[in-house]
Design goal:
2 domains, acyltransferase activity, transferring groups other than amino-acyl groups, alpha/beta, twelve-stranded mixed beta sheet, Acyl_CoA_acyltransferase, Aminopeptidase, elongated, 13 helices
Length: 517
């Protein structure tokens, strides 16, 4: 019996956060150098900002095409701009839920896949989205790679584009866009410096949706569908426990309390695992303390993971100083999700005190953590005082930041508190803080603590008075919870009294990360 030949399967679908690594591999394959493509953080930002606008093509189960797009207002879409400004440095951070134009920021196709019209499928998906959402059309900056060869003949890029339209000369990319129904309405000068074949310029391409309605109803963003997340913060009394089992029993008590009240997240303080040093037979030196804590790391991770699963709650496990695989001593926040996965976020900026007492080194990366309630970020204590970190996490899609902290004075606490509230306002997101109180007399550098843990919000009409959803009294052990409505953030970002994210001046400034983010 002759074998049947199965045809290759081609699927077009929306990208998800689970696809990020595969898309990053495709982008690297297409562009050759990491610096010319997108970081995983940028891809997470694109997908988190506008999931409906990110498309990919699978060919026999392998991702071979990706298109990134987001919504912008007509004013922004049709006026002169450059790529960094319009895309928010590659994160789709300029996405406007009220926008009436779809902006195409990227289309890339596996160069090894031929005669399957992957690019056309991606453009078709965008056009279908425009028709379904009754948007005015699609706009983007298109490459004009033939201009470099014809520059002497057409020193003005506008003349070059007109010559291509008149079919006096040919340019493969411009011709492709013209055949796809796009029209150039001008040239975007200095659009993308890295595109040397196009002289850094781009065609300002537009496709107008024939089914668009002239006047769209107000409040296109739906605020009736609530995205509520219940968060809990624990202010922990540092105490001299007699065993690891007693320490974990105390932790389980709070996890049980928060789970019983159906919290989605619970956060513990920075360095709360230093209680494990209290039952050592003698007072340890800083170096000995780190080695002792490192011995507990595998057991701590496994038992916290089991708590997250059994109590069906996501746990931000404070922070735990430990010696990592590369030999450095780092202050690490472990995040235990209720699906059983474990994530780690190193403290990027150790304080002078941490460097002196514990020889703690700073980490080298900060990224969002995907959860069942959307991407979140973790900034340990001092890291909250560096706005660049929170802005990156926001651009990657985080709408809630968790800040475990450990401060020994009111002044130190207020530095963290004021900076966390500043992060709420400038990024229009929520921040949940958790601190230690009490003391550990037999542990170096833990003789006193000061804390007032809180759940903080932006300062605008939809949010709590004074931007405080809930807070605990100073220096007492307690738990506090609040329901956070993520759709209120959408409202603030698109229609708030001030719109910090949207009003950034990408034409004047940006943060350049070492990893390209």
């Amino acid at each position: 019996m002759p074998s049947e030949r199965t045809k290759a399967s081609v699927v077009v679908r929306n990208a998800t956060l689970d696809d990020v690594q595969a898309i990053a591999a495709l982008v690297l394959k297409v562009y050759g150098r990491p610096a010319d493509g997108y970081t995983p953080g940028m891809l997470r930002g694109q997908i988190s900002s506008f999931p409906d606008g990110q498309f990919l093509v699978e060919y026999d189960g392998e991702i071979v095409g990706y298109a990134a797009s987001f919504l912008v207002s007509e004013d922004l879409a049709l006026k002169p701009h450059d790529w960094i400004e319009i895309t928010g440095n590659g994160y789709a951070a300029r996405h406007d839920p009220e926008g009436d134009w779809l902006y195409g920021m990227e289309v890339c196709v596996d160069p090894e896949i031929r005669r399957t019209r992957i690019g056309q499928r991606l453009y078709n998906a965008r056009q279908q989205l425009c028709e379904d959402w009754e948007l005015k059309g699609i706009v983007f900056g298109g490459r004009m790679p033939g201009w470099k060869r014809k520059r002497k003949q057409y020193p003005n890029p506008e003349d070059y584009v007109e010559a291509v339209k008149a079919q006096k000369i040919t340019d493969p990319v411009i011709r492709y866009h013209l055949r796809a129904g796009f029209e150039p309405i001008g040239v975007l000068h200095n659009y993308l410096e890295e595109d040397t074949d196009s002289g850094g310029h781009a065609t300002h391409m537009v496709w107008r949706n024939p089914y668009a309605v002239e006047v769209k109803p107000a409040n296109k963003v739906s605020y009736s569908v609530k995205e509520r997340v219940r968060v809990a913060t624990v202010q922990v009394q540092m105490r001299a426990v007699k065993s690891f089992e007693e320490f974990m029993s105390n932790v389980e008590y709070f996890v049980d309390v928060c789970s019983d009240r159906r919290a989605d997240f619970v956060v513990f303080p920075e360095l709360f695992t230093l209680q494990l040093l209290a039952f050592e037979k003698r007072k340890l030196s800083p170096a000995e303390s780190i080695e002792a804590l490192t011995r507990y790391t595998p057991r701590f991770i496994e038992e916290m993971r089991e708590l997250a699963i059994s109590y069906n709650i996501n746990i931000i496990g404070g922070s735990h100083p430990t010696r990592t695989d590369d030999g450095d001593i780092q202050n690490v926040a472990y995040v235990f999700l209720r699906n059983g996965s474990v994530h780690a976020q190193e403290k990027i900026h150790p304080t002078p005190d941490e460097r002196h007492w514990w020889n703690i080194k700073g980490g080298d990366s900060v990224d969002v953590i995907p959860t069942d309630c959307g991407p979140i970020g973790v900034l340990i204590c001092y890291d909250s005082e560096f706005p660049e970190l929170a802005r990156r996490l926001t651009d990657e899609g985080a709408r809630i930041l968790f800040t475990p902290f450990c401060t020994d004075s009111r002044q130190g606490y207020l530095r963290v508190r004021y900076c966390c509230h500043a992060r709420c306002i400038e990024n229009q997101l929520y921040v949940v803080t958790s601190g230690c109180t009490g003391n550990l007399p037999n542990v170096e550098n833990m003789d006193i603590n000061y804390a007032q843990s809180a759940i903080l919000t932006p300062c605008d009409y939809p949010f709590a008075r004074e931007g405080i959803a809930a807070e605990i009294a100073e220096n007492v052990e307690a738990v506090v919870m609040a329901d956070l409505d993520l759709t209120d953030l959408n409202f603030a970002r698109s229609e708030g009294v001030v719109r910090n994210l949207r009003d950034r001046r990408f034409d004047l400034y940006r943060v350049a990360w070492k990893d390209g983010g």
